[in-house]
C-alpha cells in the first residue's frame, strides 16, 4: 500500500465519498499525500483541505479535465492549481452548463429505451456533484438494468452505445493551456486510454505538458514500467494514482493501491512553482 495517491474523486464529481470521508479514509490507510482530482470541478477542494488540516494528510489541489478527441479518451490532470483562477473558473462554468444539457439528453435516450429514469434521479445519485456517465451507470445498477458499472457502460453508456451522448469539451491542447493558466502542472492521465500515447505526447509536450501518469492502478506492473520509460524518453515527470471513486466502484482502483515516489510530488510542485513565481508547495499540517 502506497502513501501517496495523486488521482482520486469525491462527490463533487462522480466519486462515492464526500471530500471529508475521502480524507478520513486516506488518514486511516496511511496516505500522506492525497491528490483531489475531481472531473471538471474544484468544488470539493475547500472541504478536503479543511478536513486534512486536522489529520496527517497533505492535499495536492488538482483537477481532471475532460477533452474532446476523435477516438480514445484523453484526460488532463492538473496539479497544484489555483482553484480561483479566472480562466479556469470561466471554463468550468461553461462546462457545467454543457454537462447538464448532456445529462438531460442521456436521460431522454434511456427513456426511449424503456428505462424510466429522470434528471431528478440522476441528481439524487450525484448528490450535488457534477453529473457524469458514472452517475448514470450507478443509477442503472441501482434500478436493476445492469449488474455492474462496467455492464452499464458496455450496454448503454459507452461510446457508440444506445444512450451515449457525445461530449462538448476542449481539445487536449486547450486543457493543458487551462491548467497552465491556473498555475498548475499538467499531466496526461491513464495514457493507454488515449489510443497512441506517443502521438498525444507529440502534440501536448510542446505546449507545456509536464507529466505522464505511469503508476496507474489498473495497469499491470510491466505496463507501468514501460510508461515510466516512456516518460523518461519525453522528459516528463512520472506520476501515479489509483483513480479511486469510492468503495465498490472498481476493485482495481483501490485507494493507495499504487506506490508513487515522493520525488514525483516534489517535481510537480517545482514545475507549478516555476510557472507562478514560487507559490506551489505542500501545506504544512
Automatic annotation (TrEMBL):
Write down the InterPro entries for this protein, in alphabetical order. Answer: PHP_dom, PHP_domain, Pol/His_phosphatase_N, Pol/histidinol_Pase-like
One MF annotation (Gene Ontology) recorded for this entry: 5'-3' DNA exonuclease activity
Source species, domain of life: Bacteria
Record's Pfam families?
A: PHP (PF02811)
Q: Which Gene3D superfamilies does this UniProt record tie to the protein?
A: 1.10.150.650, Metal-dependent hydrolases
According to the entry, every stretch annotated as the Polymerase/histidinol phosphatase N-terminal domain falls at 4-69
State the protein's name.
Putative PHP domain
Which lineage do the record's taxonomy fields give for this organism?
Bacteria, Pseudomonadati, Thermomicrobiota, Thermomicrobia, Thermomicrobiales
